[in-house]
Design a protein that fits this description.
Layout lengths: L4 H13 L2 H8 L3 H15 L4 E3 L4 E3 L1 H29 L4 E6 L7 H13 L4 E6 L2 H10 L4 E5 L7 E8 L1 E6 L9 E2 L8 E5 L5 H13 L3 E5 L4 H9 L3 E6 L10 E6 L5 E7 L6 H14 L1
Parallel strand pairs: 3-4, 3-5, 8-12, 9-10, 9-11
Antiparallel strand pairs: 1-2, 5-13, 6-13, 7-11, 7-12
Helix pairs in contact: 1-2, 1-4, 5-9
Length: 293
């Protein structure tokens, strides 16, 4: 039985993201095509890799066992790809930068890349999408030159904080809280607060969730902040959602954004390895330093 190693990599990414749509975004491919690829792999293997419902994706027992071997293949391919990238970057005007999937909503990130690209029109900037912990690992390993990350970052990387975001609560327009412009955590006592699953970014989850839990809120991990989630917010008066405040983002019709006071801010930063940087990555860091001042 011959298995395409690229499909194994895709399987590993889905397992890491616990979501077909997030995995497709991270891989830069269409979700229906990715789902079809995994279905064909399951047919080839003779067992299901994932248990699927309308709201959740989880590994089956066989899938969890198979994941260990698939990770080894993915790691080998990743190492080969990283080596090729390092060799190529010695002669190529190319900068590999990681970014969270939602960071296109952050004006500081877009402006920084636009300014750098205008000043270095001969440099190809390539964005790799992923959650911050994954991007940190890829910067540390040398696969990425730099990465934009959200939340608290391990100290083994050099960190340049670009800005800090406050937090918002999103509610349906019929919610009694919708008339408020600000709210304190204690006012969410016994309310259900939707948040991303902890496994995607444990440090950021704890930063946001712990003060709300202490105030008596019930945290509800949500695998996907998709259209179905936002539609549920409009009609479920018990449910609210928490997220960083991106000033350029306007809530969807039927939803209201309320500033959450008395909470820690969430840093948005650029990270790089303390050593081994390239001239291009140092130039980008210099641009970012001017932005953060």
């Amino acid at each position: 039985m011959s298995i395409d190693p690229r499909t194994l990599v895709q399987f590993v990414v889905i397992a890491e993201e616990v979501s077909f749509s997030r995995a497709a975004m991270r891989l830069g491919i269409a979700q229906p095509w990715l789902s079809s690829r995994i279905r064909k792999l399951e047919e080839q293997l003779g067992f299901a890799l994932f248990a699927r419902t309308t709201r959740h994706v989880s590994l089956t027992e066989q899938g969890a066992q198979f994941l260990e071997g698939a990770k080894q293949v993915a790691l080998s391919l990743d190492s080969a790809s990283m080596l090729a990238s390092q060799i190529r970057r010695k002669t190529e005007r190319r900068l590999a930068i990681g970014a969270p999937p939602y960071s296109n909503q952050i004006g500081e990130r877009r402006a920084l890349i636009d300014r750098f690209s205008s000043a270095h029109s001969d440099v190809r900037v390539e964005l790799e999408i992923g959650w911050s912990p994954t991007l940190v690992e890829r910067v540390a390993s040398g696969r990425l030159d730099l990465a934009f990350v959200m939340g608290v970052i391990p100290p083994h990387l050099e960190i340049l904080t670009l800005c800090n975001f406050s937090l918002d609560i999103i509610v349906g327009s019929s919610d009694p809280l919708a008339a408020r412009s600000t709210i304190n955590p204690v006012e969410l006592t016994n309310r259900s607060v939707a948040i991303f699953t902890r496994g995607l970014h444990p440090a950021l989850y704890d930063l946001i969730a712990n003060p709300l839990i202490e105030a008596g809120a019930n945290m509800i991990p949500v695998t996907e902040l998709d259209d179905a989630h936002w539609e549920r917010l409009k009609v479920d008066s018990r449910l609210v959602s928490v997220q960083p405040h991106f000033s350029e983002v306007v809530p969807l019709p039927g939803l209201v954004s309320i500033q959450l006071q008395g909470m820690p801010t969430v840093p948005f930063s650029l990270v790089r390895r303390p050593s081994g940087s390239t001239p291009l990555s140092r130039a980008f860091w210099s641009f970012a330093s001017q932005t953060s001042e």
